[in-house]
Amino acid sequence: MVRSKSVSEKVGTAIVYFILTVMTFACLFPILHTIAVSFSDKAAAVAGMVTVWPVRFTTASYDAIMQDKQFFRSFANSIFRVVLGGGINLILTVIMAYPLSKGIRYFPQRNIYMWFLILVMLFNGGIIPNYLLINEMNMLDTIWALVLPGAVPVFSVIILMNFFKALPEELEEAGRMDGANPWVIMVEIFVPLAAPSIATVTLFSIVGHWNAFFDGIIYMNTASKLPLQSYMQTLIVEIRETSMMSMEELQRISEVSSKTFNAAKVFVSMIPILLIYPFLQKYFVTGLVMGSVKG
Fold it and tell me: Taking the CB of residue 170, how many other CB atoms lie within 10 A of it?
């Protein structure tokens, strides 16, 4: 028999739902506002009349984006960075997490490497030493300056390592009995079983590389090599003189305001993550939970 809820329980449930609704709207409002501004008339956007619904609907900002060659060049740079950087992150994460998941009996130096990883995660050399190192290695103004400094995401290594720990040791013993070497055991047995955690750390890597902007500003000297977020940051922060603009840029500015133009670019830059996340979301919670069951 199902027990009916008391008045206090109903009130408590209503309060929880109310708080969750407010928090959901607080998270969605910036996105909805950005989309609404991007589709609004420039006068309405500048006057602050737009909330979550476009005022005097227009696609002028998106028409202007179609003419911005640098935007699409930076968009392609970011996609290339995500593919290259995400691939490097994933490979190094797997080949580091698997041996570190083994006990001292199989890997006597495990604790030394773990302390080294934790030390690297907690302490950083700083911007100037990193810049000098990148310059000394002749990586300035190259894609390697963006992907190699963060090639080993320690947090992802720990998540995947704990997931590997949670898998039965009998799987590895069965592989050894069949004559498989450690590489075969890792690639053909453990990696397929770790799909939820691998999807989780891959999502972290994709979002991290896509949203990064500061390293692009520091390490890239050529405008055509800027990733998308770095390019957009320069658009929002820098104030350019009209005498330095081309006729095409001046015409675009006359048709749209910088507010609607930048809002449209922000929304377009969010689309790849919004498209990828639903496919990886089902693995997200499972990967985090299973990756935290053991220390």
Answer: 8
